């Protein structure tokens, strides 16, 4: 049983750009339980990230071999695995889960001359865990197509 959640509380941004979209649960049946809803909310994070990744890939012509995740949600093993599955590339988790703060500190050190180059910064970044994709491309695309259908149904909801 698959339930989809579109978290469009104030519209949708990249790559959908619809300020009138609104949040929605889709795929509800009488057998849906709260754990299905919780899973759908977690999965929506990975679906949205994958939408952004795919939009980026259309513009960026280089290879993307992995994605690095940070923040509190990296502690959710289900979400990190699902993210790798949807992206189709490994998701790396650094030792320091608050990478944005670390990055700002590294850039300050580089600016002050305490680090000599961006390559030197890489020495300080240690990867704690890597999640490898574990689903087929067919399954990935089927899930993404259903997500797109759910997003389309949420669009334009609040149009005057």
Give the gist of this structure.
With 160 residues, this protein is mainly alpha-helical. It is built from 5 helices and 5 strands. Helix 1 packs across helix 2.
Architecture blueprint of SSEs:
Layout: E1 4-6, E2 24-26, H1 34-59, E3 67-68, H2 77-87, E4 91-94, H3 99-111, H4 118-122, E5 127-131, H5 137-154
Parallel strand pairs: 3-4
Antiparallel strand pairs: 1-2, 4-5
List keywords for this structure.
160 residues; three-stranded mixed β-sheet; Nucleotidyltransferase, domain 5
What this model shows, in words?
With 160 residues, this protein is mostly helical. The protein has one domain (4-154): 2-Layer Sandwich (Nucleotidyltransferase, domain 5), CATH 3.30.420. Helix content is 46%, strand content 11%. The protein is built from 5 helices and 5 strands; from the N terminus they run ββαβαβααβα. The protein has helices at residues 34-59, 77-87, 99-111, 118-122, 137-154; strands spanning 4-6, 24-26, 67-68, 91-94, 127-131. It has a 3-stranded mixed sheet with strand order 3-4-5. Strands 1-2 form a two-stranded antiparallel sheet. Strand 3 (67-68), helix 2 (77-87) and strand 4 form a beta-alpha-beta unit. It is globular and about 60 Å long. The model has no long low-confidence stretch (mean pLDDT 95).
């Amino acid at each position: 049983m698959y339930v989809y959640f579109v978290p469009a509380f104030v519209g949708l941004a990249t790559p959908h750009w619809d300020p009138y979209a609104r949040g929605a649960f889709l795929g509800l049946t009488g057998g849906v339980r709260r754990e299905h809803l919780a899973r759908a909310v977690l999965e929506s994070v990975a679906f949205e990230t994958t939408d952004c990744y795919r939009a980026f890939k259309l513009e960026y012509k280089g290879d993307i071999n992995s994605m690095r995740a940070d923040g509190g949600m990296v502690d959710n093993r289900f979400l990190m695995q699902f993210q790798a599955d949807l992206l189709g590339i490994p998701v790396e988790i650094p030792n320091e889960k608050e990478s944005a703060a670390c990055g700002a500190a590294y850039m300050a050190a580089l600016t002050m001359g305490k680090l000599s180059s961006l390559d030197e910064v890489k020495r300080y970044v240690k990867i704690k865990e890597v999640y490898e994709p574990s689903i087929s491309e067919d399954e990935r695309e089927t899930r993404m197509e259903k997500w797109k259908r759910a997003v389309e149904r949420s669009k334009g909801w609040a149009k005057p």
